[in-house]
């Protein structure tokens, strides 16, 4: 909730000063097991693999709702499974190492895209603020296991397909 609130404040200030010509529609995503804004009430024991967004009663709740409403955006949920798929996709396809909470934005955009939420030609930006080293245990748990290769040039060449 804090990030969406801060981004919206910055976008409005840029717009008021003529630095940008239009305001974006702000979309936010909470983990399904820790979604107080979406549910409309605090979550006493939030649960999600995305530790940075495992917040049952965010301090910036009102600001996040204002950002959503003023921008004509939305705040929705994503499952831990959707977060983990986006987390893996960012690493494998883009070479970007984020913490799971950052992957929630990509998971949300994928979810909405599959539902036909976006019009053709729209620009969509996901802000990825959390580096993967903030949650190294998740990276270790989801990484492929290393292959052991003899310290021999022919063995290495064979292992990498040469």
Brief rundown of the structure:
The chain is built from seven helices and two strands; from the N terminus they run αβααβαααα.
CATH class: Alpha Beta
SSE sequence, one letter per element = HEHHEHHHH
Q: What are the segments in which pLDDT stays under 50 over at least 5 consecutive residues?
A: none
Helix content: 40-55%
Number of helices: 7
CATH topology name: Rossmann fold
Strand content: 5-15%
Total number of β-strand segments? 2
Quaternary structure: single chain
Radius of gyration: 19 Å
Distance between the termini: 50 Å
Helix/strand structural class: mainly alpha
In CATH, the architecture is 3-Layer(aba) Sandwich
Number of domains: 1
Described by strand count, sense and barrel closure, the largest sheet is: 2 strands, parallel
Mean pLDDT over all positions: 95
The shape, in one word, is globular
Give a structural overview:
With 162 residues, the chain is mainly alpha-helical. It has one domain (2-159): Rossmann fold, CATH 3.40.50. Helix content is 46%, strand content 6%. The chain has helices at residues 2-16, 36-39, 61-71, 80-94, 100-114, 136-142, 153-159, and strands at 27-31, 74-78. A two-stranded parallel ribbon has the order 1-2. Helix 1 (2-16) crosses helix 3 and helix 4 (80-94) crosses helix 5. The chain is globular. It starts with a helix and ends with a helix. 26% of the residues are buried.
């Amino acid at each position: 909730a804090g990030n969406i609130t801060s981004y919206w404040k910055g976008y409005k200030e840029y717009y008021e000063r003529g630095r940008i010509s239009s305001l974006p529609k702000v979309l936010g995503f909470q983990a399904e097991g820790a979604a107080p804004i979406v549910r409309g009430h605090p979550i006493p024991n939030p649960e999600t693999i995305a530790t940075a967004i495992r917040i049952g009663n965010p301090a910036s709740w009102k600001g996040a709702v204002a950002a959503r409403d003023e921008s004509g955006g939305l705040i929705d949920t994503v499952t831990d499974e959707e977060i983990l798929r986006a987390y893996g996709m960012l690493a494998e396809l883009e070479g970007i190492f984020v913490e799971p909470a950052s992957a929630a934005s990509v998971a949300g955009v994928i979810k909405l895209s599959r539902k036909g939420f976006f019009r053709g030609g729209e620009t969509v930006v996901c802000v990825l603020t959390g580096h993967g080293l903030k949650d190294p245990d998740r990276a270790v748990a989801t990484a492929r296991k290393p292959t052991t290769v003899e310290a021999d040039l022919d063995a290495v060449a064979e292992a990498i397909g040469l």
